[in-house]
Fold these 4 entries.
Entry 1:
Amino acid sequence: MHPRYGRRLPLTHDQGVLLSHTSWGLPAVTIVAAMVIHFFDSPRAVPFFISEVDERGVQDAVFTIGLSIAGVAQMLYAWHLYHTVDAQRPKLWFIATLVGLVAALNSILVSQFDTYDYVEEHVLTAMLAFGGGVLWSLLSTVALGSKATVAGHRLRNIGFAMAAIGFVVMLAAFQPVANNFDATGMSTTEFLNQAQEGVVIAAPAEYVLVAGLLLCLSSFRHELLSADRPEN
């Protein structure tokens, strides 16, 4: 194995696998739970963006706490993967890890900056989380190269394709509609109501994007399981 920057986390092999499940399982449960609560709590419209569930109430607590913890788990997981899994291109593997850390950090921030009170901060952190996640997946796939497992590589290809297509469709569907009117002085709810024609396509695309990113995260479990158990 090539020399690594920094120090490895003091995790056993089994703890690393548990962290792997947490990195994608917790955000998946969090998002689904918050969306279900929002759906039965008089949503603005259906379909809706995931960030719309970050309203005051139980759904806000579920969304913010769940994604904050999940973001921390993803940062730890990215660092643990870097030190545990060998890659064909070590330098690119390190760069991919840094991108993953940035994406995970913005997953935390996007849950703190809700779209109703901090719309500009929310959009910026969401783009960094989504875009960073897609880039992390792409760079990791290239960095691992021939050292990737067949199952992990296949899942990452599927997840990356889902995330990339979802990202492009979301922007392509929403931006032209949003640019067709002057949003000055509008609240987030008023703005989204005006842009619902675009949300109808962009929201499902966002669901595909997030599902793709979570699939990419889950794919690394195969590399983790095939790696040598680290010394404790």
Note: The longest helix spans residues 196-226.
Entry 2:
Amino acid sequence: MKLKRAVLGGRESVRICVAQISPAYMNRDSCVERACEAIRSAGQGGAQLIVFPETWIAGYPYWTEGWDSALPDWAAARIRFMDEAVVAPSAVTEALGRAAREANIYVVIGCNELDPRPEVHTIYNSLLIISRDGTLLGRHRKLMPTFTERMFWGHGAAEDVEVFDTDIGRIGALICGENLMTPLRAAIGAMGEDIHVAVFPGAFALHTGPRLEEWDNLGNFWGHFVTRAHAFEAGCFSVCACTFLDPADVPHDFPHRERMNIGYAKGGSQVVNPLGVVMAGPVEGSQLLYADCPAWMIKAVKAIVDTAGHYSRPDVIRVMLNLKAGWTTVGTPYESGRMPELPRGELNRSADQHEVPMDRVAEVADRAGVRLAKLK
């Protein structure tokens, strides 16, 4: 049986860095160079984890399209969007992995990810999670692109909803509007997070105008309060990583350069403690934002409200994911947040021995959230 890992991997504290630095817009290779430099700097600054914002490689689509788009501009931008996307694994992830290994630091970085299958050319809004030993731990694709994002990205799958058990703690990650999907946050919280990563294209307001998205200069960015809420609800540290984009980093030959809404890409990153209190940020402009996150904060909050443990009621409420094996309940006390699958043959024999109808056993198992193995 796998031994339970202590809070934050048994460390007294974990230092987190948010890379609120400008990407080289629509230039994947230059983005990787900047990322590696930031990874090295964060490692030298004592960080064990560095987080880059949403689609940092090689840029968020800050423009809109429609049937009235100018065809040459539309085609040129789309071609570049695909050409600068990341395949995972690839030389890009290897370069990031080398930097992570040399700096001895975990990396979570947003990218436009091109489906690796040779016959497929779908692009996803993804997060790559890289270990301190340089290996690609996993990838999370945004489940539901928001609003006009649906013209750019495909949909992720339930298998990408995962919490990574590392030696600095259990790390979960969601992308922008996913943090508004309450059942999804409940699922990833039920898996048990020490650190929650939430990434955004900037700290934007939706209520001020004249454009739909404007820089949040009033402190009302919903990403700030929803990540604070999640920190409190899940009893974890919450990292809100927001993009800073220097207009000078947008190539002069990019077709939509003059009609992109990048006014809200000024940063706004922050780190929140398990009580929902902001520890660092929000900050504007180019910088590496650091926060020291002590394990005692998680332990103290969990002693009061352990939402994935003693404060849960799996007999009343269950959170389920539709995995390849079917609908699966996530939550304690089962290892890795997965309910066990019981062998149907043994249950049949037990039901016969005690003269209990098998359909009654199946009904009770379903109510308890226990999965029965499918008949072969």
Note: The chain has two domains: 7-304, 319-372.
Entry 3:
Amino acid sequence: MYIIGITGGTGAGKSTAVKALQTLGAGALDCDVIYHELLSDNAEMISEIAAQFSGVLINGEIDRRRLSEIVWNNPAALQELNNITHKYVNEEITRRITSYQSQGVQIVAIDAIALIESGQSEKCDVVVGVTAPAECRVSRIMSRDSLSREHALSRVNAQQPESFYKDNCDYILENNYDTEAEFEAKCVEFFNKMNKEKHNE
């Protein structure tokens, strides 16, 4: 099995890169989706979060909005939350990779903003960073999430700079395309080339 890590800031185009891999037969694991599933279903993780952040457990469920308010613009609180959640997400990723392996899936893509910071990149054979100009990301976030420009810009500024991905990834896919379809076509071309190089090793 060949595991490809896909990382980059919000609005850069990670989901499009993963979609391109899926068209080539890859299994996909979206860490953000998995995190939200665990936030609803994993009693141990819920208990740890509730113990760390008072007032977020309401009627046995984590109040996501309240939790977001606590960690938003509070790096120390966000780090505490990440220390709890990363281990549970990592365990679930490992379990799902094993499941894909048993099904004979040969390529798996792990999609995660914090792929490197969480240690998940260590599971990967190769790490691909998806980057895009800040203004493009802001426009995409505004359109996708119906946010003001100020809020979208604050999200971009709160994340890792482009240099972080260039320093820590094996490859960089730059998404400065006008449409998602154009970038997806570029990604398919890129991953096809990577796949051929792997088979020729």
Note: The first helix runs from residue 14 to 23.
Entry 4:
Amino acid sequence: MKAAILSGPTAIPNYGDFIEPVPSEHRQLMSLVAAGLHPVTRAIATGEHYGGQFRWPLIPGIDAVARTADGTLVYTGWTEHPFGTFAERMAAPMGTPLPDGADPVQVAAGLNPGLSSWLPLTERAGAGPLGVVLVLGATGVAGNIAVQNALALGAEHVIAAGRNEATLETLEGQHRTTVALTGEPAHDVAALEAAFGRHRPSIVLDFVWGRPAEAAFTALGRTGLDQDEHPVTYIEIGESSGASASIPASLLRSTALTISGSGAGSADVQKLIAQIPVFASRIADGTVEIPVTTFPLADIAAAWQDATPGRRVVITGG
């Protein structure tokens, strides 16, 4: 079969022939319709993500909209190494049927980045009001959707922080504050402190980590010995700005701050599966819409190198 083939961690995938996947009791053969080239897709394929197998060659791709033998369109994934979803065919679990009228490209583009914030926010919303939500990395695809998700789930206010000022302008509106980050620590701390003076976050969704996280930690700091009456839940989701960030010891002692991660390994798989049809319906009815650039599977090399900001690349099949 034809597939995108990655020969090594620094290579660019080529379009070529690869062995056919073999169906099993728990995985059936289905055909590619659309698959998102998410940041985590690239990171796993190149071995930069903790979920990578570090063995090449392989077919990239972690999820997809695929067509089963009877013609049903499903959202699926969880293929076995070295197989991924950027191929004419994949052996994968049955998956979740798409809602009527759903655009397969939008589903492939939006489910992965959308669920990254939808899942932790729905869990928190089930325990009480969301309050004020800070989204670090709000100008990326996942961060942009996170702003929408927070408001949809009842956030009192959303602070959208990111570096792309043009995209930040599109996020301005009722119950929203935007913060332009520059990467310069003093500026970013001051900008976040100004926003927190009006709306101190109850929840932080961090898609970037690195220096922006350090700026947020500094801005969240307190002085004095009185008890912190404003708990903050800090949820680390992505690391596009760096794999590490320094946390001041005084921040952990002086504030009611809880830091956790949300991703494969820490997230509850059954809760994730239960939310797939819920969020797919939001995409199907147009509540969530994702800017997309599509490439046919044969153009995988161009797709892999596409650097258009604020859009999700989607690989399409037959």
Note: Residues 113-261 form a domain with the Rossmann fold fold (CATH 3.40.50.720).
